[in-house]
Write a structure and sequence with these properties.
The chain has 114 residues and is α/β, with parallel strands linked by helices. The protein has 5 helices and 7 strands, in the order αβββαβαβαβαβ.
């Protein structure tokens, strides 16, 4: 199934792709969410990100504020597109994703200390 086609609802895009530069410039203005599994997050994530794995987010998005933009990223961008579709369906509107996901990220990553 191509979620790219589903991600346009009533002619409105449910997610806006941002280049790395745009993402860096804007991500501090909202909620930065890493959708990967905890083990992957612990190995390295964008500084300031909260880890809410996709499966948890889709079951309980209530942890996110609707009045602040949401900046999503995953490994390659496919999961964040699916998450955006779910969030949009639950009334969230300002949703952005890192184009190409973390594999396209050239900035520093922060590992979780154990």
């Amino acid at each position: 199934m191509d979620y790219g086609l589903l991600c346009v609802v009533n002619r409105k895009k449910c997610v806006v792709n941002l280049t790395e530069a745009e993402f860096v410039e804007q991500m501090r203005k909202g909620q930065l969410i890493d959708l990967r599994k905890k083990e992957e997050f612990d190995q390295g994530h964008i500084n300031g990100a909260r880890n809410i794995p996709f499966a948890i987010l889709t079951r309980n998005p209530g942890k996110l504020r609707k009045d602040l933009p949401i900046f999503l990223y995953c490994e390659k961008g496919k999961v964040s597109k699916r998450a955006a579709l779910v969030l949009y369906g639950k009334g969230y509107e300002k949703i952005y994703q890192l184009e190409g996901g973390l594999t396209a990220w050239t900035g520093p990553l922060k590992a979780t200390k154990k």
